Amino acid sequence: MSMKKIKNIYFDYQATTPVDPRVLKKMMPYFGEIYGNPHSRNHSFGWEAEEGVEVAREHVAKIINANPKEIIFTSGATESNNLALKGVAEFYGDKKNHIITCVTEHKCVLESCRHLAGKGFKITYLPVQSDGLINLEELKKSITDKTLIVSIMGVHNEIGVIQPLEEIGNICRSNDIFFHTDCAQAIGKVPLDVDKMNIDLMSISGHKIYAPKGVGALYIRRKPRVRISSMISGGGQERGMRSGTLSPALCVGLGEACNIYSYEMEKEHKTLTKYKEMMLEGIRKSCPDVYLNGSEESRVPGNLNLSFAYVEGESLMMGIKDLAVSSGSACTSASLEPSYVLKALGVEEELAHTSLRIGFGRFTTENEVKYATDVIVKEVKRLRELSPLWEMAQEGVDISKIKWAHH
Amino acid sequence: MAYSKELLDHYENPKNVGSMDKESEQVGTGLVGAPACGDVMKLQIKVNNKGVIEDAKFKTFGCGSAIASSSLITEWVKGKNLDEAHSIKNTEIANHLALPPVKIHCSILAEDAIKAAIDDYKKKNRKNR
After folding, report:
1. Mind listing the domains of chain A with CATH numbers?
2. Chain B 72-101, residues with CB within 8 Å of chain A CB atoms
3. Which of B48, B69, B61 is nearest to B112 (CA)?
4. Is A102 helix (H, G, I), strand (E, B) or coil?
5. How does strand A178-182 pair with strand A122-126?
6. What residues contact residue A211 under an 8 Å CB cut-off, 6+ apart?
């Protein structure tokens, strides 16, 4: 029996990235001949593994202008976000008990805050403007003398917008508040400098930057010093802040991924910008009523979150089935609720149902972008011919004026 | 989520897409669902003077299961009289397309749509008599 071969193309680089072959190559020896425990202090097997880990730590530190001593390795950005928020809260909680974050943060930040709210912390969830960015005046207004930490992510996973980190950092520093930022999606995409931006804690993920899943890092400032309570009890590795034997292979992978970005970031940014413009123009030229979600100016080029009015997102995904994208629509998840992020932007529910996130990255080719643009345009046109809402819009019926029976 | 062959076929090659003149006395129109819920179905039937549905058309905004459910029901109602069409159950649609549990509401919407179209036709023709 012969199977029709469908070539699948990956357009979901915000969900995860493939491991760069150069990263994998650096990792391989640590799965084989270099098997020592990096925490073994008394023999060459340990020293060799430790050296790999320490070089990696330097690479991670370098791309955010930190000191290697300020980097600890974790299992990923979820753990880093948990450790940053709960660790700081536990250490300083008896003095200050107010945390400021934002409604569009990643679930692991929101859930950590919810956990802390249960322990008596007061949480302020800043709203976002329609472009997905926080309002700095709102941030200033929500600060009290009990505010301990502000947590705002660098680049948004769903809509790709870049928050004004330097401005937020300034506000925090001048008010003597810690500034934590989840930079899982920002590393390698925007220039980051923990000193210039007054960042006190930063979460980093491996698998969003072409390193493997299962590794991440947390930057913790030493001057002025930020202290955290550890979440994992054990042998006191990672300066006592994260016990457990490190995986040298994973650490080396994260380090090499950062190292590659230290000299390829600009080039990659240019290529991705070209792709983004190609696709956006290609779609807009052929399809009216397509909206970009999140700021058009303050965003990373690898993320296009688009609403295709009058075409439901999941049906569109079915139509472009050889393109791996992500949907802002409800129907793909069990919750049947459209994205909380688009909702926070004020995107109406009916438009949120028509949204797709298309992500480009290092291994995307120009031909793939052209092909995808054609397929998306063709399918949007086909589904609009099927759509009663499109028909009404063409007849000049105001859909918002119709009394729909919600079910 | 793997969809059935029947469902994919109705999604990729939907039957009876289109619109009929909603002012015509022979035509009944059902419009159900809501854009904010992610699905809207418009289903129309054309009834001859013997009370038999001789044509049916649909347009659907919704996921693949909603499109397939409406395509299937337009196929089923053609040639049926109004009572027969009115008695089509959503479970028959769900079974035929092997809808996963989270998509059962699509078949319910299709059943609602045909009932709404029949009601609309009956209302129109009662008035005119």
Report:
1. 21-261 (3.40.640.10), 266-387 (3.90.1150.10)
2. none
3. B69
4. strand
5. unpaired
6. A19, A20, A23, A250, A253, A254, A256, A257
A-B contacts (CB, under 8 Å): 83
Residues 6+ apart with CB under 8 A from A103: A125, A126, A127, A128, A340, A344
Q: How far apart are CA B12 and CA A106, in angstroms?
A: 36
Q: How many CA atoms lie within 13 A of A53 on its CB side?
A: 27
Q: What is the DSSP letter of A355?
A: E
Sheet holding B39-47, edge to edge: B27-34, B39-47, B53-61
A329 has a chain B CB within 8 A of its CB? yes
Nearest alpha-carbon partner for B107 in B119, B92, B117: B92
Q: Write the single-letter amino acid at A290.
A: V
Domain ranges for chain B: 5-122
If we measure between CA atoms, which residue out of B58, B106, B114, B119 comes closest to residue B85? Answer: B114
- Per residue, the 3-state secondary structure of A372-405, as one string, reads HHHHHHHHHHHHHHCCHHHHHHHCCCCHHHCCCC
Say if the Cβ atoms of A315 and B31 lie within 8 Å: no
* Angstrom distance (rounded) from CA B41 to CA A30: 58
B37 is known as an active-site residue = yes
A356 has which bridge partners? Answer: A306, A327
Put simply, the answer to whether A312 touches B59 (Cβ < 8 Å) is no
d(CA A188, CA A172): 24
d(CA A36, CA A242): 19
pLDDT value at position A95?
96
Task: Please check whether the domain covering B5-122 is classified as CATH 3.20.20.370.
Answer: no
pTM of this prediction?
Answer: 0.92
Option in A314, A329, A405 nearest B32 (CB): A405
* ipTM tops 0.90: yes
Q: CB–CB of A314 and B63 under 8 A?
A: yes
- Along chain B (129 residues), what's the average pLDDT of each consecutive run of 10 residues? 90 96 95 92 96 97 96 97 96 96 94 97 82
Of B3, B17, B40, the CB nearest to A389: B40
The stretches in chain A having pLDDT less than 70 are 1-6, 328-337, 406-407
Buried-exposed string B53-77: b where 16+ CB fall within 10 A, e elsewhere: bebbbbbbbbbbbbbbbbbbbbebb
